[in-house]
Amino acid sequence: MNTPTATVAIDDLRYAWPGKPALIDIPHLVIGAGERVFLEGPSGSGKSTLLGLLGGVLLPDAGRLAILGTEPARLRAGARDRFRADHIGFIFQQFNLVPYLGLVENVTLGCRFSPRRRQRLGARVNSEAERLLGALGLDVQSLRHHSVTELSVGQQQRVAAARALIGAPELVIADEPTSALDANARAAFIELLFGECGRAGSTLVFVSHDPALAPLFPRSLRLTDVNRAATPAEAA
Amino acid sequence: MFRLALKSLLNRRGTVLLTVFTIALSTALLVGVERVRSEARSSFASTLSGTDLIVGARAGTVQLLLYSVFRLGEPTANVSWATYQQIAAAPAVAWTVPISLGDSHRGYRVLGTTGAYFEHYRFGNRQPLAFAHGEPFAGVYEAVLGSEVAAKLGYSLGDDIVIAHGIGRVSFSNHDDKPFRIAGILAPTGTPVDRTVHVPLAAIEAIHLDWQSGTRLPGRGISAEQALTHDLTPRSITAFLVGLKSRVATFQLQRQINEYRGEALSAILPGVALQQLWSLTGVAENALRLVAACVVIVGILGMSTALLTTLNERRREMAILRSVGARPRTILGLLCLEAMSLTLAGIVLGVLLLYAILAAVRGYAASQFGLFLGLGLPTAAELYALAAIFSAGLVAGMVPAWLGYRRSLSDGLAVRT
Ligand SMILES: Nc1ncnc2c1ncn2[C@@H]1O[C@H](COP(=O)(O)OP(=O)(O)OP(=O)(O)O)[C@@H](O)[C@H]1O
Ligand SMILES: [Mg+2]
């Protein structure tokens, strides 16, 4: 049923936080290579939890979850972290940057933990970081000497996108990266993200509680539809 | 990872600097106490060597040692000249050096003795006294200065000085009718000798001819020249140092002196007396060390607290590091590395601080307390103390590191902000 090239393949995935009722119960979900998927769900519906499972930071209680054909649950802890470093880029809602690192250093942070990304870029780690920042609409030269904490939220999210994208990971996971932006900036950010994902050949999984973003994506899913654990009360 | 830790610390330089400074101060205190303690012991121990017995009027071992050798405190009674002569003539005795104390010159003690002093007194590693200028006194009204007396008071050979009665720094009764000519200045020894004015025993007798029980007898002035015509053999001395022909005889002679019938005497072995002194001061030393150790513990706990309070602010940072593939172990290592760098920086700064303080106060300590503080490399005991501080810092740093590690495990990527 799952194509061998599927970026994400889920069968009967179940997860509950310790001492809490089942939060995730997804019978079946496949996301193919190169797809841009919008995953919509209200607050508390388990979006971030699902992304934690995709990233191999959380482990499923039952069922199967495979990224690029590999099940993180079957890897040892170290290999799991390494797998995440090599194949997955994350963008969070807010506060994405390490305050004591510079602009370019924040972008190349992922390469520190991933020999594979470094290898792909060769000696061009820094120039690729600058290219990505430029492509995402940031003027590296004028921002270079500022602390990253002085950037606007929109600018910070672009730096985070560059960090997720550097070294062309197969999967980019964005957890409400636009919720702090206004409607125009939101659309512009998503456009830029699409462009660079396309260029890197990365699959994009984008979650948000905001259904208004759905039309921007080729494919959109409602977590309440794919997740059996979601009760009508939570979905409301 | 080291650069990551360093940058994270630089980002919080305010608290980091305070923390490092706290550790530095406590390190300087602990090592400083240790250094002062060991320097005090070694400078005491090197003040007198080659002397087998010290003999004085019956007194406590430590008391006799302190006033005869270190010019600390006051003798309670004297030894009569006849008794001294008798013991000095004992067959086992190779040499004796009489000592007569009680007068002073501008805050420096005046010591009456004989030429034997310059011949037999040994300090440090059995070094004899050496003259920087001049030679031992020959005439009655001649003095030999310790190096510090000459340097501090700006005296040179041939100058005249006046001796004050008693040992107060400011004295109103001077022996100003009998000035002394400076015949010699000793080379520095790093011992109380440097702070002593040496005059002949006969001179002590001469300047006190017209004195009785502390006051000058009115109308009975005896001039310096007249005094020379009197019999200047001392009636008594304060104490005397004894060198033996063979050390085997030490205990026997000591017992004989202690049981001497004519007069109540004490004979002490300098080494044994020093040991007694150390056991007396040991309690205070240990108390001081304990306090210093407590200060170090407080400093290190301060570091722990500083690291702990930042942990909350840094949850996001940890989640970001996890999201780019940092292992929980990496985060543990990062936090440990920070604690280690803080402690190490504190220790290095503390040692530098200590040397700066030592360099600044050593002149004062030497002149005021006769304490000669060396600027040598840390001793084994000091290195041991530094290692102890470092390990304590590591252990204390483990706590916040471990908490941060546990937290980043349970937080995963979903940190509420
Ligand atoms: N670290 C955690 N420990 C225990 N329970 C957690 C933890 N993180 C999330 N939860 C619980 O899981 C449920 C879903 O949380 P999750 O963050 O996945 O929701 P979300 O859809 O991302 O919500 P939001 O839109 O507000 O980000 C919540 O009820 C929350 O209490
Ligand atoms: Mg969320």
Overall strand count of chain A: 8
**Radius of gyration of chain A, in angstroms, nearest whole number:** 17 Å
**Bulk shape of chain A:** globular
The SSE order of chain B reads HHEHEHEEHEEEEHEEEHEEHEEHEHHHH
Count of individual helical segments of chain B: 13
How would a textbook summarize the main sheet of chain B?
10 strands, mixed
Fourth-tier CATH superfamily name of chain A: P-loop containing nucleotide triphosphate hydrolases
GO cellular component, one term (chain B): plasma membrane
Protein name (chain B): Putative ABC transport system permease protein
Keywords (chain B): Cell membrane, Membrane, Transmembrane, Transmembrane helix
Pfam families (chain B): FtsX (PF02687), MacB_PCD (PF12704)
What does this structure look like?
The complex is a heterodimer of chains A (236) and B (417). The radius of gyration of chain A is 17 Å and the shape is globular. In chain A, helix 3 crosses helix 5 and helix 7 runs parallel beside helix 8. With 236 residues, chain A is α/β, with parallel strands linked by helices. Chain A is built from ten helices and eight strands. The two termini of chain A are 32 Å apart. Chain A has a five-stranded parallel beta sheet, sandwiched between helices. In chain A, strands 2-1-4 form a three-stranded antiparallel beta sheet, with helices on one face. Chain A has a single domain, classed as 3-Layer(aba) Sandwich (Rossmann fold). Chain B has 417 residues and is an alpha+beta fold. Chain B folds into two domains: 176 residues, no CATH class; 216 residues, no CATH class. Chain B is 53% helix and 16% strand. Chain B has 13 helices and 16 strands. In chain B, the strands form four sheets. In chain B, strands 1, 3, 4, 7, 8, 9, 10, 11, 15 and 16 form a ten-stranded mixed beta sheet that branches. Chain B has a two-stranded antiparallel sheet with strand order 2-14. The longest helix of chain B is centred in the C-terminal third of the chain and has 44 residues. Classes of the chains: A alpha/beta (236), B alpha+beta (417). Chains A and B meet through helix 1, helix 2 and helix 3 of A and helix 1, helix 11 and helix 12 of B. The site of magnesium ion has 3 residues of chain A, from helix 1. Chain A: This is Putative ABC transport system ATP-binding protein. Chain A: GO terms for molecular function: ATP binding; ATP hydrolysis activity; transmembrane transporter activity. Chain A: It holds the Pfam family ABC_tran. Chain A: Keywords: ATP-binding, Nucleotide-binding. Chain B: This is Putative ABC transport system permease protein.
